[in-house]
Amino acid sequence: MINFRKISLFLGLILITNCGYTPLIDSKNNNFFLSNLTLEGDRQINNYITNGLKKFQEKRENAKKYNVEIISEYIKNISNKDDKGNPKNYTIKTVISVKLTSEEGNVIERAFERSTTLSAKDKKIEEKELENKYKKDLSNLLSQDIIFLLRNQ
Predict the structure, then answer these.
(1) 110: closest CA among 94, 90, 95?
(2) Using H for helix, E for strand and C for coil, what is the string for the chain?
(3) What is the CA radius of gyration of the chain?
(4) What is the pTM for the complete model shown?
């Protein structure tokens, strides 16, 4: 029985390490780079998006050059309330408007939106920390949306 487990573990490791996995967002194999990145709107969201796009700002030869303008907006609404009128859940929405301008002068405009729900907490500091975490996660998803848009041009 012990030999069977060892053999199974060994074969499992070989299959996992040799499966050919490559990340979808790999900055080395892209045919574009961002020459100018302009951001407006919510500063915290813009910082997260900038960090997500930073590795694509390196100049590459034989790659398309894009100027990117991003306008971000953060919206937090009360979804429902309890019997006393206190907020029970919030809807958090992050919206960005992206304008891509290529070297040739082609302009592409897209809007992206990501949202999630946040439960109200008794301790507001915990709620604020969770809200910041969700804000970061949504911003990272939006930066991936921008990268996929650029890869498919």
Answers:
(1) 95
(2) CHHHHHHHHHHHHHHHHCCCCCCCCCHHHCCEEEEEEEEEECHHHHHHHHHHHHHHCCCCCCCEEEEEEEEEEEEEEEEEECCCCCEEEEEEEEEEEEEEEECCCCEEEEEEEEEEEEECCCCHHHHHHHHHHHHHHHHHHHHHHHHHHHHCC
(3) 21
(4) 0.77
pLDDT in tens, the chain (153 residues): 677 888 888 877 777 766 665 555 554 566 787 888 899 999 999 999 999 888 888 777 777 888 999 999 999 999 998 888 888 999 999 999 999 988 888 899 999 999 999 998 888 899 899 999 999 999 999 999 998 888 887
Region of 120 please: left (phi>0), alpha (psi -120 to 50) or beta.
beta
- Rounded to the nearest angstrom, the gap between the alpha carbon of residue 67 and the centroid of all alpha carbons in its chain is 19
